[in-house]
Amino acid sequence: MTPLVQSVDWVAIAPPTITALAGLAALVADLFLPERRKPLLGGIAITGLLLAGLSLLPLADGDRSTFCLTTGSGACSYEADAFTLVMQLLVLGGALLTAVLSLHATPALPAGEYWFLLLSSAAGAALLPASRDLATLVVALEVVSLPAFALVGLRRGDRLSSEAALKFFLSSVTATAVMLLGISFVYAATGGMHLTDVADGLRETPGQLAAVARTGVVLTLVGFAFKIAAVPFHFWVPETYVGAPLPVAAYLSVVGKAAGLSGLAVVTVVAFPAYSHVWGPVLAVLAALTMTAGNVAALRQVPTGAHSAVRLLAWSSVGQAGYLLVPLAAAAYTGTAGVTVGAAVAYALMYAAVNLGAFAVAAVVGRESAANRITDYRALYARRPFAALALGFFLLCLAGLPPGVIGLFAKVVVFSSAVDAGLGWLAAVMALNVVVALVYYLKWTALLFARPAGAGDGAGAGGAPGEAAGAPGAAPADRPAAPVPSPSPVAVPSPVPVSLTAAVALAAVAAGVLSGAPQAVMRFASAALL
User: Fold this and answer.
1) Where is the composition biased (Low complexity) (predicted)?
2) pTM flag (> 0.85)
3) 55 with 15: CB under 8 angstroms?
4) What are phi and psi of 308, to 5 degrees?
5) Residue 511: inside a domain, yes or no?
6) Of 331, 419, 431, 470, which has the highest C-beta tally within 10 A?
7) How far is CA 511 from CA 349, 353, 389, 517, in A?
8) How far is Cα 221 from Cα 117, in angstroms, rounded to an integer?
9) Is the pLDDT of residue 454 over 70?
10) pLDDT digits (tens, 9 = 90+) for 74-101
């Protein structure tokens, strides 16, 4: 009797497997390590992620498949192709930088649970781009999401953290339910679960099932649109990022988006090409709405400076998600889906490095100011030159301005994909949003190098030192101002943990390398063909 499924290719599935095993090892080791030895768990996690990254090297030789049917179509559930390789590199690299960033934060969190949940979620994110059937895609997406809920609410006794976790959970459950309904419609119309079988079935869908198939295609995209924080599935983002431990917010902003991008790219390009006339316009509208909502909301955070910098980064990440959706929408209108998907991957690589770096600098500032307001970054260069220069570089990359060359190249590639697909209106919306984003990125960058408040220029933007405009205790406008004391010497800032410095430095080096060889990065990403 012929077996239904072939033997397992352990080399192909090594990246997510090693990541998951490292998470399990950290959880078991936590049971036996005394409190003073808990930092070793971070070493286990980082070692596991490094080994998982090294396991990608054998996959560069060629495509590999496993969990394939031995009868019928011979479709496979797991494919380690060029797209999988690039996306797993992005996911594991993002998780590794998050782990380094987390080393300073874990003493305030239950270490064993934290590392287990982080690596479990990363394993799901590494599995997702290789998934080639709808069931595996759903499982991978839930493996990404379920540990993330717990990570957001891991600060026990913190009301803000618990509230953020609950909002994240309820929003995600709703999106998943809608996606499962869509998958059931697709299965009813095609009778298949493997993506290639679904693609063949949709090309031959009987007329009476066309409406079912069309509805299923749209609803299936909802779960992945939620992970990438596309409008209108983005409302959880600002509250969740602010309430979560800062390394978790950084992780969600990069690895969570990579998971959503992977799922959207796989289901649209591989499973639903016959219905590109349905999902293409949907993604194009979502891209326009997402980038506009994110950038306008981020712009509103800047004028007073009293808002949280993490909230600004959260809205910025929503705007960046809109740019990521542009090449996927363009794939519906061109015959070169691989090239347009490569543009999305290239932009994701740039975004991952610089956004994680921005969150790392936010962690540095957060050690001095728990509120982590935008005004707390005023004159950061005078206190911490390296952090200020790094954050300025990251913000210029996100804005697409020199010396952030990789940001400029990535935006040009995404813009070109819209123009080549005949989506002139979407390219115009993107151009307008890039200009809007310049305002808040440049204002924040200028604040880093401004003179300290009270040093001869009054309170400057944001009011008195450490005090937001309109904050309780500020003097009314009609009350005579108190004499301004002579500026005191700048206090020596407290030393930054080595792990935080390393996280900022790694992100800066990655962004610098990407900016130094942008064409090589684009060629590498454009190889991520589906």
Assistant:
1) 466-481
2) yes
3) yes
4) -70, 135
5) yes
6) 331
7) 9, 6, 13, 10
8) 26
9) no
10) 788 898 888 899 899 999 999 999 999 9
